[in-house]
Amino acid sequence: QVQLEESGGGLVQAGGSLRLSCAASGRTFTGYAMGWFRQAPGKEREFVARIGWPGARTEYADSVKGRFTISRDNAKNTVYLQMNSLKPEDTAVYYCSAARSTWSHAYDYWGQGTQVTVSS
User: Which of 22, 56, 78, 118 has the smallest C-beta neighbourhood within 10 Å, fewest atoms?
Assistant: First the structure.
């Protein structure tokens, strides 16, 4: 079992930046692909970014490409989402996820989420 805990959310003005962190615990982080998703009020959860194991391969949603960067520190069992040039439409609860595969869209574990609010 893997536990995921997100942090780093908050309120920021449009054009600003935030860095989200997701710390994994409970089992080895080794071999797990990691992802970030978000869910805005009244909308379905959507894919934001993912990173494979050990970290060379990444993928982004078109809506965040060029603004967000996903990375991981395997020694710290932590994955990050650097968010720059934030827009009001980025407002959502952001969730971290882990897949029992080096590269996958099928996620087995989820965090509780962290709120990101971007004011105009």
Answer: 56
pLDDT in tens, 7-50: 999 999 999 999 999 999 987 778 999 999 999 999 999 999 99
Kindly give the pairing relationship between strand 92-99 and strand 78-83: unpaired
* Paired tokens of 11: 């309120």
Paired strand residues for 60: 49
Give me the pLDDT at residue 69, please. Answer: 98
DSSP character at residue 88:
G
The three-state secondary structure class of 3 is: strand
Q: E-assigned strands of 1-113?
A: 3-7, 10-13, 18-25, 33-39, 46-51, 58-60, 68-73, 78-83, 92-99, 109-110
